[in-house]
Amino acid sequence: MNRNKNDEEDYWNSTKCKAFIFDDDDEFTQLKESKRAVNNLRRIVDDDEDDEDDDDVEKVTWSGERVGSIAWSVKENSLSTRASEIRDEGFARSQSSHAQSAVTKPLSTYSLSSFFKGRNREPPPGFYGSSRPGSFLSLSDSVIGSGSTNIAPDLRKSKFDYKDSVIDWNALETVRRMQKAKPYSLEKFRSLKDKLQLVDEAVRTHDGNVITAVLIFLNKTLSKEVLFPELGLRQGALNHFICYLKEMGREKVLMELLRALGRTEEAALLHYKQHLNITDQIKKTDFVKSCIGFSFAPDDATHVEDHYTLLDRQLIIEANDKRIEAAGQMDIFKRYPRKASILNMPLITTLYYACFYHYGESEGTFSGPGNLRKTFKISDKQYVLTALAARVKLKAWNDVDLLFTTKNWLGYTKKKAPIGFHRVVDILHKNNAPVKILQEYIALVDNPELKLNLATKYKCHDIVIESYKDLKDRQQLLMYRKKVDRGSEEERKIDIILNNSQIRWKN
Amino acid sequence: MAERWDAPDLPDFSILKRLAKDQLVYILEQLPGKKDLFIEADLMSPLDRIANVSILKQHDVEKLYKMDNKLVQGVSDQLCFLVRPRISSVKHIAEIVNADKAIGRLRKYKIIFSPQKFYMCETVLEEEGIFGDVTIDEWAFYLLPLDDDIISMELPEFFRDYFLEGDHRWICTAAKALHVLHSLFGPFTRTYGIGRCAKMTHQVWKQIVEDTDEMKQCRAEIGRAFFIDRDVDYVTPMCSQVVYEGLMDDIFRIKCGSVEFGPDVTSSDKSVKVLLNSQDKVFKEIRDEHFSNVFGFLSQKAKKLQKQYDKRQGMDIKQMKDFVSQELKGLKQEHRLLSLHIGACESIMKRKTKQDFQELLKSEHGLLEGFEIRESISCTEEHINRQISPIESLRLICLLSLTENGLISKDYRSLKTQYLQSYGCSHILTFNNLKRIGLLTEQQPGETLTAVESTMGKLVTDKTVGKLTDAFSSLARKSHFRALSKKLNLIPRIEEEYDLRVPRDMAYIFGGAYIPMGCRIIEQVLEHDSWTGLEDVTRLLNGNEFISTEGSSDTSASSSAQRLILLFFLGGCTFSEIAALRFLGKEKGWKFVFVTTAITNSARMLESMLETSS
What distance in Å separates the CA atoms of residue B332 and residue A41, rounded to the nearest whole number? Predict the structure, then answer.
């Protein structure tokens, strides 16, 4: 806490921004006070509570949905769907209810139809309705037919539908008509030149809807060999075509397109993406293996290979551990039954798993952490972090100790942590390590100031006292004396130091 | 900060809700009789804001279903589908229709596309052989007012579709949405913009205006409009938000203007859904505040409330009666809100303390100012190594790359490898997307070697060169963000301490460390009513800026309309940006109407870059 605060002040002073400390005690106390005040009020409020009207806090069901909200109602339905029998609505009833609703339909103050509805729309009567089986209400059909907007272009209306089919709209006019949802026809765009002009005009409208519409027409009327290279020259149109194919789920065509345009890296990624849809782990592994030959960028090629190796390794580990767990052969599986399978987990999770269940296995075994570390070239820092987290969880303090012990060539042991001992302490603390262990590692922190801060934070009195002694800071030591328990070992220790006439105090 | 006396009033945007509701009712009436309504998940919350179940029931909606990929039969003889114009939705509907056909069941079907239909959706109907069996309608629900001054198109997919895929499908939609506002609250006399999408939207909108019959000549309420693309400023949304509403959004995810507080906030076993807008008196006062001010405010408020309750002591019966009938209800409401917000603050504090938020902010500020880049990289690495949060880690990588104008190859590769190891290999797809959209850049080798570096290299011995290169590569590299930040004065350099209680500029939204770039550009252009002086800035942003005078010049709009300015964010804006601009408005006597394709934040933007199984 103290450390942070000091750090903060240093930093903020230098940047002229006011420090705002998220774990500041003061702010928290303020908040706590407010809360207490409000909670006290609650009693008063509850006393007065005789006419509870929830006008701003909405009623919420157990699942958190507002009662009467649409989401809530939907949920209710999905619950009752199976139980409710399908009612047979007779025509008579349905018609009468329509009549009723037509009468009760509220009149809106603003007439929207003129506002929202497109103009100049006269689709042929019965265009929607006449072919529909069981059409019983011409009223609704005609209303739909004449009133609704038709902003999206409609290719199916061939020229036979229109009396003015003779009119020859050029590419620009056609595209504009499509945009405004007026009748048009694409049939006359038969030459390649005309088709390309059409697509170029469409792109110029910036209307993606029209662009895609034209591309669908082109896709139907041109061979791939002709269409693809032309799209290659038109990035804007190409983007739309790719999106369309993706949305339609036409991966094969898309792959062909990308290959034809020489965009092999994109094609490789697209192919690789399909592994996301495979749930079966063995099939997934095989699929990723099949990706290896594709032309990925150099770094991605390595990653894909690693991906395959990892999946493959996970299959082996999983099969093995499942067997061992079932047979009850290893104690660790009995003490900590596996919660989930390791299949399809990231490498670091797999490493953690290995450090948890297979620590100390030789580098030769697939499941051991040493093997994973070597195969995937995991950095020291990453390895130590993961192994530490796993061993701390198991309270295997001895392993933790060994993790940081190195021997030099003379055989002396030395403690070393690639992540810095202050991080080690942090991880230990977050995993509820006892003070005794914490103290051991706080003592190893190099930076004296950091060490003091950590020791203060985690109440490692001995280190704090020693640090102040080393700093010859009599005042701080006096202050600290007030914080330790009266009559404790620590107090005595402080007194001995304070009475030590050998020390030349700086204050 | 108090508003200026001459600040214009906001128009009443609730008319947009009424219009949408009425049109939906009108469409439902087109299919008379009992019907089941299938609603796409993404449309449920917006729909909830403008209609409720009883309105739907009034118009013969028998049952409501959420559209998911399960095949639901429904109970009525008429099925209505309310969907976004997506191929997958249409294919799902086709499945339902064809399943009916297979068992010889006759029903009526209607698809309502919102806000518009797309041609490709109709082709799917055709291909599936159900064209003609299904009627199609459009529900022109373009705009949802989330608050007095925020209007959202609720199209989060706009960001990915346009900026990543380069698909122009929503541009026309955006233009039409703007046209709605223009016809109701315009005419605009002046428009400004920056970005490719902004430019196109402006063009399409002009075309629509031209094609529409002459507009009624009315007094304009909104006089000016500014269009801005999200990719003009990626840095701002990638920063941690620290104004109250922004933090709320980052932590609880505000959805369609409402938030769900779990048991940890309500300190009961129930969850509560709360609308967060200016109707909430407590929220209204703290939403734009830096989080550090919020506690003070809440405790003050709590004390005041206590005092008001204490008044009861020593009241006679008549006074008590008045108190109960007049004040008590208001007090109770305030009390309820207050305890909710205090609960929310506590929950925010708890979570932020756990994840070393302070250290994170420090590292972010370092990046913005260009200090201690190495420290920030190792902070990011640690985040990744400890598998803290995949999205948070991505955010840090992107912020690093954006502020440094790309990562040097070595850093890029190493961060990417560590990321893939921690969160899974399939993220090579995510990285590819981030690169394509420009949130992440790998510098090409050679780019980093600057003149200073190479001369230094000659001067010193080989051994020190390595170290120097490291030191220099982060300093001397060309960086658009740095250049832009310098030209636009984004990092306040003030000698005295920045008092967050009395903000002096928009930087307060980031604790005084950084003025959001997009907002600064808007400020500069509006103030000078031109782009002159910003040539260097626009050049670094790839141009595409414009300014245009609309309509006939003789109808010079009133000065209050000139100060009511519509801001159109294409690709989304954050609550922090809104807070900053509200502050700016108060300073300058302007009022902004925030129109956005969606409210966004770093998590939403980055999540939209992930690839999922189809």
Answer: 10
Flag residues of chain B having pLDDT under 70.
1-5, 213-218, 445-479, 494-496, 551-558
pLDDT digits (tens, 9 = 90+) for A337-387: 888 888 989 999 999 998 988 888 877 788 888 888 889 999 888 888 898
The one-character DSSP state at B496 is: S
SS3 letters across B175-220? HHHHHHHHHHHCCCCEEEEECHHHHHHHHHHHHHHHHCCCCCCCCC
Close Cβ partners of A187 (under 8 Å, ≥ 6 residues apart): A158, A159
CB contact (8 A) between residue B302 and residue A38: yes
Q: How far apart are CA B562 and CA B592, in angstroms?
A: 11
Nearest-10 crossing angle of helices B373-385, B357-369 = 140
**Gap between the Cα atoms of A496 and B66, Å rounded:** 75
Residue-wise DSSP of B105-146: ---EEEEEESS---HHHHHHHHHTT-BTTEEEEE-----EE-
**Where does residue A49 rank: exposed (0-12), middle (13-18), buried (19+ CB within 10 A)?**
exposed
- Are B386 and A65 an interchain contact pair (Cβ–Cβ within 8 Å)? no
Pairing of strands B144-145, B150-152: antiparallel
Higher pLDDT, A366 or A222: A222
Chain B positions touching A247 (Cβ under 8 A) are 86-88, 120
| Amino acid, single-letter form, for residue B210 | E
Helix or strand or coil: residue B568?
A: strand
For B463-488, the pLDDT digits (tens) are 444 444 444 433 333 458 888 888 88
Tell me how far apart the alpha carbons of residues B154 and B143 are, in angstroms, rounded to a whole number.
8
The residue whose two tokens read 């903000």 is B503
Number of CB pairs, chain A paired with chain B, less than 8 A apart: 384
Does residue A346 have a cis bond before it (omega within 30 degrees)? no
Identify which of A346, B390, A276 has the alpha carbon closest to the alpha carbon of residue A291: A276
- Does B425 sit within 8 Å of A306, measured CB to CB? yes
CA distance B302 to chain A (A): 6
Q: What is the pTM of this model?
A: 0.80
Query: Structural domains in chain B?
Result: 13-139 (3.40.50.2060), 146-233+517-609 (3.40.50.1910), 265-352 (3.90.830), 356-443 (1.25.40.850)
Taken in order A467, A469, A472, A476, the sign of the CA dihedral is positive
| Range 421-460 of A in CB contact (< 8 A) with B | 423
Q: B409 touching A, CB under 8 A?
A: no
Residues in B 189-218 with any Cβ partner in A closer than 8 A: 200-201, 203-204, 211
- Mutant choice from B358, B382, B415, B501 vs A, greatest count of A C-beta within 10 A: B358
**Residue B244: count of CB within 10 angstroms of its CB:** 26
- Both tokens of residue A144? 């739909």
Helices and strands per DSSP (H, E), number in chain A = 26, 2
> Which residues of B234-351 form beta strands (DSSP E)?
258-261, 272-275
Dihedral sign from CA coordinates of A247, A250, A255, A261? negative
Q: Exposed (0-12), middle (13-18) or buried (19+): which is B106, by Cβ within 10 Å?
A: exposed
Cα(B144)–Cα(A76) distance, rounded to whole angstroms? 26
Q: What are phi and psi of A392, to 5 degrees?
A: -65, -40
CA–CA gap between residue B155 and residue B84 (Å, rounded): 10
Identify the bridge partners of residue B113 per DSSP, sorted by sequence position. B83, B138
End-to-end CA gap in chain B = 49
Tell me what pLDDT residue A96 has: 41
Which secondary-structure segment (H or E) carries A414?
strand A413-415
- Is the previous residue joined to B115 through a cis bond, with omega within 30 degrees of 0? yes
Q: Which residue from B30, B117, B498 is facing A16, i.e. has the nearest CB? A: B498
**How far apart are the C-alpha atoms of B194 and B522, rounded to whole Å?**
9
Please report the ipTM that was assigned to this predicted complex: 0.87
